[in-house]
Amino acid sequence: TQAQWEKVMGYNPSVFRGDPSQPVENVSWFEVQQYLEKLQELGPMQYRLPTELEWEYAARTRGRNIGFAGTTTVDDLCDFAWIRSNAGNTTHPVGEKTGNGLGLYDMSGNVSEWCSDTFYEEDEEQRVSITDSHEKVIRGGSWMLGADYALVRKRDAAAPGSRSGDNGFRVVVSVKGQ
Q1: Which pTM does this prediction carry?
Q2: Which of 63, 78, 105, 141 has its CB 3.0 to 4.6 Å from that of 149, i.e. a possible disulfide?
Q3: Cα separation values, 47 from 12, 23, 34, Å
Q4: Using CA atoms, how far apart are residues 143 and 5, in angstroms rounded to an integer?
Q5: Which residues contact 146 (CB under 8 A, 6 or more apart)?
């Protein structure tokens, strides 16, 4: 959230302010790495971005075959996600919509989320084709995008130094040494 970011980093880069429980956005992948490093210094936990595979596994509620985080149909999507059709051109406080089967909120919609992976392109002849791209993966769709971007299988990417009012992140936490 913006409150968590500001407590650690000392400033709020977000475009959409007003409620400290809104997701922090307008942060680059590099800035997120700085945030995670500062978190490491605060305690016994390890903090990092999820891999693309971890993100999708969690969004799909342990890999289930669903279209969106929490639902299989676009008709129910607005119960689970802030997207272009219901967001009113802004982010919203986290956790206002229904969580997915793991109790994770906003995995589809609100803000697109940086992942740790470098983007690769899929190739019809080969299963995966690694590109020269240095772009980082973004998943989940956002308040400014349509339902098709909220699909859990939808992949996107951006330059790690770029910032956008619809890009945020999710933190993976683990105990150090495990």
Answers
A1: 0.90
A2: 141
A3: 20, 17, 11
A4: 20
A5: 83, 84, 85
